[in-house]
Model the fold of this input.
Amino acid sequence: MINFDVGGKSFTTQKSTLQKYKDTFFSGLLSGNFPLNEKNIFIDRDPKHFRVILNFLRYQNPNIQEFPLSDDFYVLEEIEKEADFYNIVPLIELIQKKKNDLSENLDEKESQYKKIIERLDSIETQAKKILQAIDETYCGFSNGSFLVKKK
Done:
């Protein structure tokens, strides 16, 4: 077991988890080329997304495309920066794909919203014409042009 102190927060994992991918920060750290106190390795990073990094390394499903990631574009940006720091290329690629998918979905939704707004504008224009026709036909006066009799 290896203990990490990431920005003041403790994490524990197995050495094999950290060596899952080659050429990462962790594989270099555990290569034996650096003297380590494996009881507590300090990493001066924000711990906010380290759990995602570790969970990705722990993920056993051979189809990494199914690894659950946030749908929040800005959270993905933050996690991508951390994955880049730790040089976990498969996670970086997965995040980039997820961001592209989100962008495509956003473009599609924007197009749908524009069509809805155009349709609502058309309905509003038609409703105004109908109300104007009703006013002129049945009331015989335009808005605000009637008189009130005083007693």
User: Anything to note?
Assistant: Residues 2-104 form a domain with the Potassium Channel Kv1.1; Chain A fold (CATH 3.30.710.10).
